[in-house]
Amino acid sequence: MGSFYRPALVLLSAVPALLKADATIRYQIETSVARLADQKSSSAVYMKGNKGATVDDHETTIVDFAKQEVTIMDPKRRKYAMIPATEYGDRMSQRMSSAMSQGAAVEEALKSMKGTCATKESVSTETIQGIQTQERDVTCSMTMPMPAGVQQGTGGAMTGMGMKLVRRTWSATPGERVRVPGLWQLSGFELWQKYFMNPTGGFAKIMPGVMAPLMEAMDKNQVVMLRMTMEMSMNFPSPVAGAAADAPLMKMSQEAVDVSTAPLDDSLFAVPGDCTVEPFADLMNGIQAATVQAMKTPAAKTVKSSPDPAIPPAVKAYVPSLTPLSDTQPVLPDEARASHVQGNVQVLVTVGPRGSVEHVEALSGPEALRKAAIDTVRQWTYRPVIRNRAPVTAYTDANVFFFDRSNPTPPGFEITPDVTAAANRLAQLEEAFPRTPEQEFADSEQDAGGGGGLRRFYKLNGLAVKAAELGFNEKAKAYADESLAAAAQHPKDWNYGNAIHDGHMVLGLLALRNNDVPTAREELIKAGQTPGSPQLNSFGPIMTLANELLQKGERNTVLDYLVLCAKFWKTGAPQLDSWSETVRNGQTPAFGANLR
């Protein structure tokens, strides 16, 4: 065991009497993610003798300090995995590295990502749960220009990404660790986690210019946290023409609601008898899938008693990212070129009942480019938006990208107040004009009509997948067949691999719904024979059909499919190996985010 771990061991061995006392801290957590459901949850940290545990709504982690073992449990699926403490950090780092690894070009860009962090400590104190705390603010900004190869592969629509994170914490002052019963034990557990269970190693390896200052700023002088607020803003332009360059915002608050030294039952630190062991990777995938699904659960909508006065009465809908039928390409103004100004302008477009552009408003982007963006979009036309079987006036949003082709260095993305304001504005429009999944599908169908064949080709596989999810079997088959036929006409297009994989996957699901297992097997193998795509190569295949075939006992077919997937999902090799091992052992893997 290296010197990296010794400080934690020294602390824990130096205060054995204190660590034998029981201690508990409970938190209430609220999370708000733009365009997803708001979530309320709880978590707790427990200490008893030489054991500690952290518990939240989706995961329980138990640490045995004496045995140096970590047990992770999925309480809903009744599964657990046990690993040496010295391996936990490496395994979590590998998962994070794999999740963010998307090819050599992107990895190189991540390594070049730059970040700055500024900290501010308040001299005043605040009492929380009877404990004096000191406030500390950390503001971190990160920017990364996308590599030229990625830009070219996405038609120049992807210039860069950026993130800004503001975190405020109220932690117990150093003197409170000695005064308040339980705080010393809890702070010892925190230190142990920092050295043994640190999951940021993978980030630090692929983003050395960002994670080192970020983690140093966040971890410095942290004792026991009683309150935390965090806000993150992002902008990540989509690589697909016509798709939204969303800037999702995340807000989170965590408040201690109880600090106690009441006796704890030993069962809190033991795996229940009805739980069964599962490989570590599969266990973490299952926990991740449950967390993502909870975030996707629709939030209850509040029906407004009166329309928003900022929205004209004529506007009856908001449909994000409609694709123009005719989209005049933007031309970089001479003045902007001379001033070396380029980048993206995000606009809000009012589309009339006949599909013409009635109004354009610039939401974000360089001032020198806004007029040119507005003039460009005014020349576009759209498919009309339909409500109650009639065309209506509707909002949509678009991104107009201006590039100086003579300048080989693309601009990095910078988080600015107008970008944040634009994201908030669009989120408010989604709340003002809520859509059911069925309405979203109908809007996608309408948007896919008309225009050129390539424009429709880019939408067909998504329509097939969504129709299958909604149980529209006839439409799902029609769109899957059309997508495969269109793919044959565009064998060199970036979407070819998606069309092959998704089309056959949907046809296989439909075959299973008709109890036609042989056809489903054939379609799964055909889906795996895709040559790949930017999306499949990065994020891996959709495992829905494979998962359902496993329920039918078709393990050999799924194993063959996983072998085929390894040909295009190079960065997912460890994940595919883990899934294959689980299938060979007669179990069904937790496919996590790939089960969609």
Structural summary, described in words:
This protein is an alpha+beta fold. The chain folds into three domains: 3-296; 304-434, TolA/TonB C-terminal domain, CATH 3.30.2420.10; 452-596, Serine Threonine Protein Phosphatase 5, Tetratricopeptide repeat (Alpha Horseshoe), CATH 1.25.40. It is 41% helix and 25% strand. It is built from 22 helices and 17 strands. The chain has helices at residues 6-14, 16-19, 85-100, 104-111, 148-153, 174-179, 183-196, 201-206, 208-219, 280-296, 334-338, 367-377, 417-432, 437-448, 453-470, 473-489, 496-513, 517-528, 534-539, 544-551, 555-565, 573-584, and strands spanning 23-33, 39-48, 51-56, 60-64, 69-74, 79-84, 114-128, 131-145, 160-172, 225-235, 249-260, 276-277, 315-318, 343-351, 357-364, 385-387, 390-402. The strands form two sheets. Strands 7-8-9-10-11-1-2-3-4-5-6-12 form a twelve-stranded mixed beta sheet. Strands 13, 14, 15, 16 and 17 form a five-stranded mixed beta sheet that branches. A hairpin with a 3-residue loop joins strand 3 and strand 4. Helix 17 (496-513) packs antiparallel against helix 18 (517-528) and helix 21 (555-565) runs antiparallel to helix 22 (573-584). The longest helix has 18 residues, at 453-470. It is globular.
